[in-house]
Amino acid sequence: MTWQPTDCHAHSTHSDGTMSVADVAARGKALGVRVTVSDHISRDAPTSVDSVAAIERYLDDLEQYDVLRGGEFCWHDALWREVPPSVVRRFTHRVGSLHSIRLSDGKFFRAFSSALPDGLTTSQYMEAHVTSLEELAGEMPVDVLAHPTLVPPPMRTLDPHELWSEALETRAVNALLDAGIAFEVSARYQPHERLVRRAVDAGVRISLGSDGHRSDQVGNIVMPLALTRALGVADDALYDPERHGSRTGAYEA
Ligand SMILES: [Zn+2]
Ligand SMILES: [Zn+2]
What we know:
Helices cover about 35% and strands about 15% of the residues. The chain has about 250 residues and is of the alpha/beta class. The chain has a single domain, classed as Metal-dependent hydrolases (TIM Barrel, Alpha-Beta Barrel). The strands form three sheets. A six-stranded parallel beta sheet has the order 3-5-6-9-10-11. A three-stranded parallel beta sheet has the order 1-2-4, covered by helices on one side. A two-stranded antiparallel ribbon has the order 7-8. Helix 4 runs parallel beside helix 6. The longest helix has 18 residues, at about 120-140. It is globular and about 50 Å long. The two termini are about 20 Å apart. The chain binds zinc ion (2 copies).
């Protein structure tokens, strides 16, 4: 089959996107990109997909369209633990996210918070981020880790090479490799090249994600694709659940 880029992560009006599923499908077609609807599935995210019954209705709707059927699950919320296998298999692939990380005191902290907790240094935050990433990889049945470098807004202006030591990068990459979870190169929260290169060199599967919420974003994976090509990743090695299987979804791995 002719290769087409696959956007493994985008949103519709089932959660906080502005486009209907039909519009997402049409947008992908216009761009020549295979698109995924991967709305938030969580009791702690802006979404209507917040129960097992709602997940079934969501999948009923997605099955009407030419889209890959994904879902973006919050690691810190328990809903992903409650989805029965018969429902899990209806997803083409699933995405896991660290929308909150667990700090060393055991409390969860939202990655969208406008300020860090008092007394927490950025290096302590990053240690907790990577420890949470390792926990996610060890227990969460997902195919892709969304936006692995998502950090709170006050940290986004800092040089990622200062946030990420090489030791932290190696831990994150090894956790994904051991679990068989793909590293998402996100158009929305762009990872620094050194980390993506480390993942590629280690043999971690790479996934492209627009994390699009609007029509100018959905299916727009130009930047992630340019980066993976610059790093020498073959187009057909980029994660595609139909080609590479899914750990728990509709395609046998
Ligand atoms: Zn997310
Ligand atoms: Zn998302």
